[in-house]
Amino acid sequence: MNCTEGDLYMNYHSVATSGIGNPSGSFASFYGNISDHAGTYVSYNGTDAGTVHYIYVFYSGYGDGSGQLVKNNAASANNCSTVDGYRVYYNSGYAGHSQSIPHYYGCGSSTNLDATLKNNNASSHFA
Predict the structure, then answer these.
(1) Any bridge partners for residue 51, and if so which?
(2) Which of 8, 18, 29, 99 is the least crowded, having the fewest Cβ atoms under 10 Å away?
């Protein structure tokens, strides 16, 4: 994992029972608010011709979870922001049950998603 300041990393696996460190397997990185972990359409010039569809998947080549959709497949998260928190939500559009992911500068440790959110994550934003 190559941590960039401000990134949120969603991990395919949970952290070991010790709760310290980062899990094995694949991960995905985000910067900013993501209203739907399945993907989003972004228009760069205000027309359909300039619309790009981003599909959020775990990075390929990093073990278990590689290439799978992030939505409803994450078990833990790293918040690499120096000051901001992130919240992960059960539903798209920042709705439903949520969990705060505390910041650990340098991505030194992951936070397991709670039982409601583990493999049921749909959106996330700076908190």
Answers:
(1) 43
(2) 18
**Residue 57 and residue 28 in contact, taking contact as beta carbons nearer than 8 Å:** yes
Count of domains for the chain: 1
For 50, the 3-state DSSP assignment is helix
Residues 103, 73: Cα–Cα separation, whole Å:
21
Looking at the whole model, is its pTM more than 0.85? no
Domain assignment present for 61: yes
Q: Which tokens go with 65?
A: 């979870």
Instruction: For residue 13, count other CB atoms closer than 10 A to its CB.
Output: 19
What pLDDT, on a 0 to 100 scale, did the predictor assign at position 110? 85
Instruction: Calculate the dihedral angle through the C-alpha atoms of 77, 114, 97, 39, rounding to the nearest 10 degrees.
Output: 40
